[in-house]
UniProtKB/TrEMBL annotation:
Name of the protein in its database record: Four-helix bundle copper-binding protein
Pfam families found in the cross-reference section: Csp (PF03860)
Transmembrane segments: none
Domain of life of the source: Bacteria
Annotated InterPro entries: Csp_YhjQ, YHJQ-like
Amino acid sequence: MSLQQMVQNHPQVQDKTEELVLAARHAMLCSLFCTSCADACVAEEMDMAQCIRNCLDCADVCAATARLAVRRTAQNIDVLRAQLEACIKACETCAAECEGHDNPHCALCAKMCRECADDCKKALAHVN
C-alpha cells in the first residue's frame, strides 16, 4: 500500500506531493525510532535524561508533523510550514544529542533524525 497513492487520491490535491509525503513517511518512522531510543536509554547504566527528553520531544513533534502533512482538506499552509520547521529543529537537536553517545540505538536514532530533517527541508521548499 502506498501513502503517496492515498494522498494523490484526495479530491482536493491538485499539486505534486512527493516531497511532502516522503517527509510524512520519514516523520512517522522517526517518531518510532525516537520512542524506541528513549526506551533503550532508560536501560543504559549512565545518566541519559537529556537524551530521553530530546528523543521523546522529537517523537511527539514528528508524529504531529506526519499527521499534518497528510491532511489536505482546507490546508493551513502557515501552520504546515511552522510544523515542518519545528520538526527540522527537533530532529537536529535529537540527532546532535544522540551522536554524543556511543551505543547502537542512539546511532540509528541520530541517522533517522538527520534523514527526517533533510526530507522536511525538501518538503518545506515545495509547500506554498
